[in-house]
Write a structure and sequence with these properties.
This protein has one domain. 0% of the residues lie in helices and 49% in strands. A hairpin with a 2-residue loop joins strand 2 and strand 3. A five-stranded antiparallel sheet has the order 4-3-2-1-5, with no helix packed on it. The protein is built from no helices and five strands. The protein starts with 15 loop residues before the first strand and ends with a strand.
């Protein structure tokens, strides 16, 4: 069951962000859905580095928002 409390740091659906985990950029992703503490993201492009092979363009999955930092792509 998803938690329904809105997050102040929640990304907005339809927007594209660079997603960071512990100050490490993981991938650019479009937010497909955001609900409470969770967001469904679709990877646009993984960043080169240690985690690159964990993600593929077009991959869609849910993440717990509080663990990530989102920087909107302009």
């Amino acid at each position: 069951m998803k938690h329904e409390t809105p997050s102040i740091l929640a990304p907005e659906p339809g927007r594209t962000y660079t997603c960071y985990l512990n100050d490490t950029p993981l991938y650019d992703a479009t937010v497909e859905q955001a609900q409470g503490c969770w967001a469904t993201v679709k990877v646009v492009q993984p960043f080169p580095g240690k985690y690159e092979k964990h993600y593929a363009p077009g991959q869609t999955f849910e993440i717990k928002v509080q663990y990530y930092e989102f920087v909107e792509k302009k």
